[in-house]
Amino acid sequence: MWGTMVGFGDLHYRYESGREGDTFLLGFASRKPDLTLYLGACLGDLAPLLVGLGKHTLSKGCLYIRRLEDVDLSVLRRALTAAAKRNAASAAPREFDR
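Request: output the structure for the sequence above.
Response:
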């Protein structure tokens, strides 16, 4: 649990500025209007796949769905799998991993 979000996996990130931290590979939260899926910075890479998803909206790193009935679950599954792989591949090594 990350506050009101449920996160899966571990992701260590490091910006060019040197700032770094830890978060999850994928996450979700049930917000009042939508189910929010936190897919990370790779969201732009998923655009061709998300065309077949169904009713949704996007922000910088989040996918918003009103109802699961509005989306194709097989497309959602592929998008989540692709996002997890992409996020894992972009993870920065931790200090103790080097």
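The radius of gyration is 14 Å.
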